[in-house]
Amino acid sequence: MQVAPVHRESSSSGSITKHLTDNGKYVRYTAEQVEALERVYAECPKPSSLRRQQLIRECPILADIEPKQIKVWFQNRRCREKQRKESSRLQIVNRKLTAMNKLLMEENDRLQKQVSQLVCENGFMQQQLQTAPTATDARCESVVATPQHSLRDANNPSGLLSIAEETLSEFLSKATGTAVEWVQMPGMKPGPDSIGIFSISQSCSGVAARACSLVSLEPNKIAEILKDRPSWFRDCRNLEVFTMFPAGNGGTIELVYSQIYAPTTLAPAQDMWTLRYTTSLDNGSLVVCERSLSGSGAGPNAAAAAQFVRAEMLPSGYLIRPCEEGGSIIHVVDHLNLQAWSVPEVLRPLYESSKALAQKMTIAALRYVRQIAHETSGEAVYGLGREPAVLRIFNQRLSRGFNDAINGFNDDGWSLMNADGAEDVIIAVNSTKNLIGSNNPAHSHSFLGGIICAKASMLLQNVVPAVLICFLREHRAEWADFSVDAYSAALWKAGSYAYPGMRPMRFTGSQITMPLGHTIEKEELLEVIRLEGHSLAQEDTFVSQDIHLLQICSGIDESAVGACSELIFAPIDEMFPDDAPLLPSGFRIIPLESKTKDTQEVLTTNRTLDLTSSLEVGPAINHATVDGSSCHSLRSVLTIAFQFPFESNMQDSVATMARQYVRSVISSVQRVAMAVSPSGLSPVLGPKLSAGSPEALTLAHWICQSYSYHLGAELLRSDSVGGDSVLKNLWHHPDAILCCSLKSLPVFIFANQAGLDMLETTLVALQDITLDKIFDESGRKALYTEFAKLMQQGFACLPAGICMSTMGRNASYEQAAAWKVLSAEENAVHCIAFSFVNWSFL
């Protein structure tokens, strides 16, 4: 539809407005008519023909105007509104581009200075080589020397001020000078829609990252936000200011002790003593700079000091400059020495990666400040009527609770139950865990005996972390056990049932996601998950047993280099109070960046490795040439931690359940990882199913080949039996396929997804089910009758019958086939396979 052009003219009194209609004639509107039309426009910008006719009837002052003319007025009004919004948007973009241009010009000046410095250094080195060829070391470091300052030597204000001024000088030389050779952060190109300009260093000591950005907040507000490090740095466990001295220019000097969580169960936590200096510069800029102080100070809790490794912060901080157009320009520098020697060799790339530091500290700081600015402007929209501050607190509590579970600090009351280190799953217990809301003791769970945490870490290969986390988020039924979720959720309600005697439940498979909020770039999502379930107890047949989970998902951008991906959740009451107690569990996947010299030696083994069993010696590694651009996604560390409340007399039972459940989740995640593995890379396969059992892919080939050999037909389609697709297609086969061992009391060693669904069990619990338990009396008789035939000719066909699940439900099947699975190498019988066709619950 062609919108008529708008021409506005005002009479001398300003009470008449002219509009040009479609036929080129002007229509004059009085101020009263325009006011009436504006009121309708505020309610409905695009009224229908009937609404316009109704408007003429209801407003006598519009009676002399034709409906077509009113239609044109609304067209013109919408056009003006669109132009106004576009003009406002362009003004905002222009301000951003102006500020970005200023930053880029400053960056260009810095790079020119750096080029000049390198040219001078090159000339000097050439001269030295010509005049003193025997010189042993003529290198010029790209980072300023950072002398160590003792904590004991900094006990007086004058000494602290001297250290503070030196820290300020070194920080400014990194933020705006050439003290560090910065290179652009991969995948973070500057532009009007970007967060800012990000750089990392690949040549300085330790790891370093730098950022510049424009934020619509005042400098003092930004400094206040950034100094509260635990609010935005999720790895910061604690930050305490022990001493504060006034300094010149209204500044302050603080002695700060901080603790940093370990990202995985395989590394120690870290702590730091730092001096933090806040001051104003002559040009009106505000500076917050910080550096480590050496010394033997153990922190406020000397008993817990053994769990921490002392990290070092080299001169770092924030330079905040006010803008003439409003807002501020922020320069952020993070420079740390994370003591890579203190972690296993396989984790050292993480502690030596400036990209990882940039993602978890530098970029996180700017994103948090921009999020606060976005909320302050009133543009943020959140679900379920929650205030932004409340949702931020939920995010922080979920992350903090998950980090506490992974680290298991002694001063929090955690202790290990299997302290010998022989188990693949670590079990920790906390009998002093305080499960209360943030401020309301009325929500206390004082009847609980404590918390059991089952956790494990393993190495994933050829899996993109963001893809795996997204799959786990969207397909919870692929790895979660509804009955375990129901157990954890039950203790949040008054009528809880003690494990293992809680009432049997059935998960309907329905998962409803209710968004609560997300960050500006949607790299972090907060949502409520409702899992629909029903009790299988006869008296509660029609009673809904829905489970509600508060969940945070982050790191789902596949293009973010070095970003950690997380899925953390906690059961909550359906009323969802602001101070609801939370017991977080979940997954964390951290990519491991290969060193430059090792990019051609990337791990390509075809199964997920358990790190806890190979830290000292390490597994044999196959090396292959891989495109260096994809190396960052080939290896990552997956950490799983699940927390379970227990009553005082159920500790051992819940610990056993927790260990089995986490092992089951690990098996499921390995299966999922294989399914989402990128094409062209070796897929990830699960561990051995039981003692003496082959790898899953090998067993899948044996099952299909033996079926074809004995029955003369193909179990899978001909296009589904090549390479690694056999296991995937066997897993998703519609018929229930199970394998049992050849023992005096046969037990199941494998089942595909349909088989697990029919038996209502998991891969781990499957190994405790004997063959005779799944058949009813008539089914057992049919099996005994055909068993001799099965062993003689290699296969047997069973008539229609009924199987029983572990939950006591009956499942009917139209027919079943049994055949011997032969190992390809020895041509010996490995196990017996069963296929139940067209099964369904009665």
TrEMBL record:
Q: For this UniProt entry, which residues form the secretion signal?
A: none
Q: Which Gene3D superfamilies match?
A: 3.30.530.20, Homeodomain-like (1.10.10.60)
Looking at the record, the residues that make up the Homeobox domain are 20-84
**Alphabetized UniProt keyword annotations:** Coiled coil, Differentiation, DNA-binding, Homeobox, Nucleus, Transcription, Transcription regulation
Broad class of where this protein is predominantly found: nucleus
Q: Does the keyword Translocase apply?
A: no
Pfam families in the record:
Homeodomain, MEKHLA, START
Q: What does the UniProt entry say about where the protein is found?
A: Nucleus
- DNA-binding region ranges: 22-85
Look up the record and report any one GO term of the cellular component aspect: nucleus
Entry coiled-coil feature ranges: 94-121
GO biological process per UniProt: cell differentiation
Q: Which GO terms describe its molecular function?
A: DNA binding; DNA-binding transcription factor activity; lipid binding
Residues annotated as domain START: 153-381
Q: Does the keyword DNA-binding apply?
A: yes
InterPro entries this protein is in?
HD, HD-Zip_III, Homeodomain-like_sf, MEKHLA, START-like_dom_sf, START_lipid-bd_dom
**PANTHER family for the chain:** HOMEOBOX-LEUCINE ZIPPER PROTEIN ATHB-14, HOMEOBOX-LEUCINE ZIPPER PROTEIN REVOLUTA
Q: Which family does it belong to?
A: Belongs to the HD-ZIP homeobox family. Class III subfamily.
Protein name from the UniProt record: HOMEOBOX-LEUCINE ZIPPER PROTEIN REVOLUTA
Origin species, per record, is Salix viminalis (Common osier)
